[in-house]
DNA sequence: GCTCTTTTTTTCGAGCCTCGAAAAAATACT
DNA sequence: AGTATTTTTTCGAGGCTCGAAAAAAAGAGC
């Protein structure tokens, strides 16, 4: 049961509101913050002067456009870049990248390297991450503030506590305790997040007008992933990162999926499935391990060009996605969609089939206009979402409690 | 964006905590409440004496078991039955019932009558509801407190604001504005809720240990309904009451559903679908309008007795439910399940097929033991959930704000 | 250049709220 | 009857937010 609300929580939450307002708006004045939060000017004044004294916010004197208005000019508040530093790590099939990022969201240093993830031991994967983070932080040296948080985004299923990678297509190993190992190594809180969830998080910041309280991000790549925001909250499973759209059942006992089961949406709409249908015409053939982007683009070109097995393969893919979305819409109604990843470049080929499938479902009723958006490159989105994840943690869990936290901790000690 | 938290909100929320603790625990002492809410004894003391003064709570002197302990005896706090009155209305196929209920949850008067809902005009349906509520409240007369809330539970889809019945199998008419019409008539806030959501609400109160933060209630009757609780919240659509499990797609372009579409889970697992498969062997036959409970029980008996079309029909039903659950579990992981309604009496026939279907899905992995529970009679659950809905509204929206509300309203006026 | 107006930000006292400690109340034990 | 024990209330202290007023920092007008 939820616990009663104490007096100190009040300040904590209002500090969080102010920080969040600044992160969202960029350089809002105190008056603006008062308006958006609904708190009084005096409260905003005290809170923001506290935050400035603590080095979390800073008055941004320099870059004002100095809009010529009559009275005392507004002074913008901005996040102090030096307040903290976070590290965002993105691990995907055969690739690892990481960046050290300041509190305002500017990348300080970054690195990317290729790995053969599918052939590595679990421990070697973890050590590659540790190594890269160590190199980067040392490269920054004293220049950067203290690292307060590390977030790792991985393709695959993580546990609901964001501590372990439960299963992933990038490695044959299960239950890899990334968070524990990295925390051990760096003494800083760490989370492992699902890549598609990070895409969803990034979309909220990229385009809050479209991606606000309810939307769906679908990653069309070798497999099919989904990031889902419902009622303003990132939707996760009760025990895992959840939202495994690719493994909803499209056709019971149908095509062979990479996961070993049959009839999953992915077994029709994943890159390997499209290739398999187009080239082999056998939906039970063993899925390929990997497939280059060019291969998919070539298939899409062929499908656009003429009727044939390629177009038929994309039809099956679109149908699987459409019926899957229809089933989801039966659960929580239609929402704006973003298709991300290589598959998005071929989405124009699939779209009519997706739409006609949705039209055959309960989702088709409400939705006069379900709108699709496509973004071929998922990498920057994952990176960005991962960064936001870490920064928001610092905002809410470290800076919002402020001295109250330190007081409480001292009390415990 | 969420708004800052003011000083008065604090008291409001802590009052809500206290009320909720009493509703949940029955007759907790102040000390107990302090423990469960985490608030200090002094705070609980002031808040509860306020609530007693306002006639919301009462000290329950009478029925103590007087457990012999050393110190000053605890004095239990209970909801004052006379604090308020609510009306719960349940409208289902060919049946309307309503009850006037006191603040402690005791039924004061109740009435049920049969209607031919499918042949009535929309307005006539609304008027039947109004008439029954009026008769009941008049029957109570001065005996009951003021009615503060009316909740209507209906089979079908309502809008997300719980104002209209968007679609229902009990009537051919759409968009029936129950809430507006009843509010007009009685001058009291009214909501229209989906019956399965009310079942879920009831289960939380019936057995909080099993039905707590995440669970699924599935109504197996003529159609298939679902009530879903995820992370402690009743799951609803963004625009409708949502969670239309019955209209997730089991087989694309498959059996004819009552909704006019094809391949819905309901088109395999609804009573009409089971009957159709067993008796006609034609999954495209026009669905029957209604079917008696006895018919389904007879089919289940036949299926238990010998292999044949009946057993095959239940196999198809179980498979549809199992694959559907598997897809849901892919989205948010397995959760405890309750099967409610006539179909639950036949669940033993379907269970093996349900389980084997789930085992073929992503949900099958995590779930070493997904547990099913069956409750044949849905009516008392719907009634109970509907009552709780209304009572919780009074708790949170009327009694928790308390005088603060009245003050604010006066300020506005 | 000086004063007036306008807008933003800070200051200050009032009013609530929760908390901890101590007191009061109510009962069982001896 | 007195003591121990547990629950509940009382009371002063400390925080927090708010509204009003003051202070600050500009442009506008003469």
Describe what you observe in this structure.
Chain A has 14 helices and 14 strands. With 413 residues, the first copy, chain A, is an alpha/beta fold. Chain A folds into three domains: 78 residues, Winged helix-like DNA-binding domain superfamily/Winged helix DNA-binding domain (Arc Repressor Mutant, subunit A, Orthogonal Bundle); 145 residues, ATPase, nucleotide binding domain (Nucleotidyltransferase, domain 5, 2-Layer Sandwich); 172 residues, ATPase, nucleotide binding domain (Nucleotidyltransferase, domain 5). In chain A, strands 5-4-3-6-9 form a five-stranded mixed sheet, with helices on both faces. A five-stranded mixed sheet of chain A has the order 12-11-10-13-14, with helices on one face. In chain A, a hairpin with a 2-residue loop joins β11 and β12. In chain A, α1 crosses α3. The longest helix of chain A is centred in the last third of the chain and has 24 residues. The radius of gyration of chain A is 23 Å and the shape is globular. Chains A and B meet through α1 and α10 of A and α1 and α10 of B. Chain A binds a DNA duplex (30 and 30 nucleotides) through α1 and α3.
Give a summary of the structure in a few sentences:
The structure is a homodimer of 413-residue chains. The first copy, chain A, has 413 residues and is of the alpha/beta class.
- What does the radius of gyration of chain A come to? 23 Å
Low-confidence stretches of chain A: 405-413
Q: What is the CATH topology of the largest domain in chain A?
A: Nucleotidyltransferase, domain 5
Largest β sheet strand count, sense and barrel closure of chain A: 5 strands, mixed
Helix content of chain A: 40-55%
The averaged pLDDT of chain A comes out at 91
Per DSSP, what share of the residues of chain A sits in E-state strands of 2 or more residues?
15-25%
Distance between the termini of chain A: 27 Å
Task: Determine the structural class of chain A based on helices, strands and strand pairing.
Answer: alpha/beta
């Amino acid at each position: 049961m939820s616990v009663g609300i104490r007096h100190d929580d009040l300040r904590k939450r209002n500090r969080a509101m102010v920080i969040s307002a600044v992160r969202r708006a960029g350089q809002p004045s105190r008056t603006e913050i008062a308006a958006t939060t609904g708190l009084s000017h005096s409260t905003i004044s005290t809170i923001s002067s506290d935050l400035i004294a603590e080095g979390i916010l800073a008055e941004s004197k320099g870059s004002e456009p100095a809009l010529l208005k009559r009275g005392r000019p507004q002074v913008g508040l901005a996040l102090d870049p030096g307040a903290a530093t976070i590290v965002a790590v993105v691990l995907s099939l055969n690739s690892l990248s990481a960046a050290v990022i300041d509190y305002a969201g500017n990348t300080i240093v970054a690195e990317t390297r290729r790995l053969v993830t599918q052939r590595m031991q679990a421990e070697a994967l973890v050590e590659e991450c540790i190594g890269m983070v160590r190199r980067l932080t040392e490269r920054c040296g004293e220049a950067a503030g203290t690292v307060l948080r590390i977030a790792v985004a991985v393709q695959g299923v993580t546990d609901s506590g964001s501590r372990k990678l439960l299963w992933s297509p990038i490695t044959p190993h299960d239950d890899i305790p990334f968070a524990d190992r990295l925390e051990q190594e760096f003494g800083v809180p760490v989370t492992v997040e699902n890549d598609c969830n990070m895409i969803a998080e990034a979309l909220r910041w990229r385009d809050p007008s479209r991606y606000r309280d309810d939307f769906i991000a679908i990653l069309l790549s070798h497999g099919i992933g989904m990031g889902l925001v419902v009622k303003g909250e990132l939707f996760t499973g009760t025990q895992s990162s959840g939202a495994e759209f690719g493994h909803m059942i499209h056709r019971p006992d149908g095509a062979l999926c990479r996961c070993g089961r049959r009839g999953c949406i992915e077994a029709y709409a994943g890159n390997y499935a499209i290739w398999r249908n187009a080239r082999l015409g056998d939906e039970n053939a063993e899925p390929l391990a990997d497939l280059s982007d060019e291969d998919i683009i070539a298939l899409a070109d062929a499908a656009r060009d003429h009727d044939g097995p390629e177009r038929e393969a994309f039809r099956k893919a679109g149908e699987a996605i459409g019926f899957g979305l229809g089933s989801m819409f039966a659960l929580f109604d239609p929402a704006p969609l973003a298709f991300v990843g290589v598959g998005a470049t071929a989405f124009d080929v699939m779209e009519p089939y997706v739409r006609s499938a949705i039209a055959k479902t309960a989702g088709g009723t409400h939705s006069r206009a379900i709108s699709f958006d496509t973004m071929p490159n998922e990498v920057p989105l994952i990176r960005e979402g991962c960064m936001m994840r870490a920064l928001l943690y610092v905002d809410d869990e470290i800076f919002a409690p402020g001295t109250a936290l330190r007081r409480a901790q001292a009390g415990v000690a």
